Amino acid sequence: MRTSEFIAALAADPIPEPIRLGRRVAAALIIGFIGSLAIYGLLMGPRPDIAAACRTMGFWLKFVDSFAFALPSLLLTLRLARPDAKPRALALWLIAPFVLLAAGVVAELLVVPQGEWLTRLIGHNSMFCMRMIPLLAAPILAALIIALRAGAPLHPGLTGALAGAASAGIAALLYSSHCPDDSPLFVATWYPLATLICMGVGALAGRRFLAW
Amino acid sequence: MMTASIAGDEGAYRRLLEDIGRSVRAMARGAFARAGVGDADVEDAVQETLLAIHLKRHTWDPEQPLAPWVYAIARHKVVDALRRRGRRKVEPLENFEEFLAAPEAEDPHALSDARKLLETLAPRQRDIVTSISLDGQSISATAKRLSMSEVAVRVALHRALKSLGAAWRRSVE
To answer: N- or C-end of chain B: fewer Cβ atoms within 10 A?
Structure first.
């Protein structure tokens, strides 16, 4: 087929309703979050001592840190969904949650006697945490991947991994209100591991579903 | 011009695709020559790029310049085309601006694989694409001939182009 003939077929095919990628992703986020909320309500719910926990630094650190990780991951995912994307300074914002968490860990190490470090790190339910964060992230990740199919990422695997990171961040936001372990030592060990699982799944899904 | 095209100006869109096609052709020829493969598949790369631009045109942000967006897609698709020819390592392609300045006209004898890929479509879809592209018929004439509504022809055409994109992608893997 000649290119001029091919162009005739393309020109005859106008998209009636323009696709707005940003809106799609926002809608996916809402739908996915409702799914996660349902899982949270069914399997977890807030911890019984949440009122007391709200007055501790460790509790808020988990919350703020999850948010500081989820937001740049999400914005970066959206940016990478366009072929002419330049991540630029946005990628640097991903360092912020790690700096914050490291500061929390240092503070914890200074305050808590050495003998207690390992107990705090292992916490009460690390395996539950490792299972629940990916489970809470799953509906968000699935919705994001479906929405991102309208995009055109040059690096589908990386874009998928970042979508996984964003979904893990939002899942951690929810999960942190259930999890009784507030020690930054616990958070710095298990939350990133759970996030890595989500990113791995996201990368695979990205390579499979976001290539174009 | 892209804005007018997205708004549905068919003539402007066709001219834009032809301009882009000429620049992409120059770029693809250059890349194929440097990779040491013959330019037998250049038209494939050009058409695949044009199809990707068409199917993904909503990913262009009207506040951004058009050329870098076109270049990113073209580069992606030309690299794919070279991979299909068994080139694992693909050298980075130089600036698209050069090719904008030195567009190349289509070789009237160069035919692409698109025809082969058309065989993978459902018969009705294939019929519609052939009618509009090879036979140069309008949507309304095609609709009348197949006794379908114009909307149904447009929908079928859009589906056909999407599956064509998918077929192209599969041929890379």
So the answer is: C
